[in-house]
Structures are given as structure tokens and as C-alpha cells.
Amino acid sequence: MQRQSTFVLAQMASDGLPERNLEKAQKAAAKAAGLYHPDVIVFPELYMSFFPVGTSREIALSTAQPLDGPFVTGMRKLAKEYGVWVIFGMNEAVEDPADPRSYNTTVVVNAEGELVSHYRKTHLYDAFGYRESDTNKPGGRLFEPIDTPFGRLGLFVCYEVRFPEVARYQRSKGADIIVMPTAWAAGKLKSLHFRTLVTARAIENTVYMLACNQCGAGSTGESVAVDPMGVPAASAGEAEDLVPVYVDLDRVEAVRARLPAYKDRRPELYTI
Questions:
Q1: Is the pTM of this model over 0.85?
Q2: 263 in catalytic set
Q3: By Cβ atoms counted within 10 A, which residue in 44, 227, 229, 261 is the most buried?
């Protein structure tokens, strides 16, 4: 297993046109390859097609595609062309014609362009006056961490950082790194919540937390990576940016030896 690796957080402002967002992803991958030679490129939640709050359900659902649709196919070609793993969010079409919603899905593609895994967001953002469940159908299971050449990779999406159990599940399944694609909405105290929660999940689980956010109108940007001791490893501002993150599994091992909080749990004393 590769002990040191480079992740790039592609903080982008995507819109409702999958074709345009795919073109932007291709340009971002080319630039990242030239600058940082990444092992993994992470794009935000719903990167395939992202709509502002208040968009009608009909428009928001109009771009949904299956996992073998043109957007995922294009991203798989991109991954193979540049020899990188790619993680990105999309609006996945629901198989049930009676359900007028889509899945908020994150896709993981390896450097050979193979679709390795996908995750349908389970905890939907019905908070701060917004109801994601009006347009999105929740998934039925948490992401199962996967072995990669760069460590065991866990994943959850955006609002789910507010649920410690979701991150704890990833750690219980052996995650060393947790990737969090997000479209974190702007608002009072939202930047504070974002940084605090990402940092807390990293510290309590002694993992790298890599949060890649949408930016532009309605989203905060401010993508961030935090190491297992809670130290910021990289961060972005409010604009589009490519943020390199250098992940070191020796750092994970050293922190866990010094801070064995996960091992010291006494789950027989409580249930959730």
C-alpha cells in the first residue's frame, strides 16, 4: 500500500448543465495533473448538475442520469486518461417510475476508469428551512469503506457530518481517510459549523477528513482537509480552486498510537 499520496480537492461552482460541468472537470483534471500529479481528485456533492435553492422540482429532476449515463461515462474516461481515482457527486435517476425524485449519489472511479463504488446519500438536508427530501430519495445503507492503493477510504456527504454515528461507522469499518463531497449552503454560522464539524469528526475517529465543497452563489466554498490530530492540512477560500492534500498513513498510525480513543471506547455502557 502507498503510504503517502496526493488528493486534490476540486472546489468548483457547477451549474445545471452536465455537459458543461463535465468539460470543467476535464480542464480541472488536466490542470491538476500538470501541477500536482494527484492520485485522487475529489469533486463536490451534486457536481454533475447543481441547482440553487428554489429551483422547481421539474427542472431539478430533468438532468438525472443512470450510473451508466453519459456523465459517469465521461468521468470514467477522464479517470483513465489521467490515471487518477475520481470521486464526484451526481443526480442519479431513480429506478421506480412512481417516485418523482432522484438520488443524491457519489461515485468512486479508479485509475483504470472502472466504477468501484457508489453511495446514495442517506441523511437528507431537511434543515434550515430547506427540504432536500422533496427532490431526493434517501439511500438505504451507509457507504461501505473500500480498500484503495492509498488506504482504506470511507465516505459520506455534506449534512451527514452532523451525525457522528455516520463517521463512526466508517471508522468501525477500518477507514483511514474519509472523503466528504458537499454543497454546504451559506448562512449565519454555517462556516463555523462546517470547519468545527469536519475537525471534530477527524479528531474523534483519528482519520483524515477531506471536505470538498461547491462554491459560488449559495455555497460557502472553504473546502478543507484536516489530519487525524485535527490539524488543518489544506484549505480553500470562496472561489474555484484546486487544493492539494498530502495524505500520510504513517501520520494516521502515529496519532492512533498516541491517542487510542477509538480503541478505548466502552460500547457495552451505551447504545444509540
A1: yes
A2: no
A3: 44
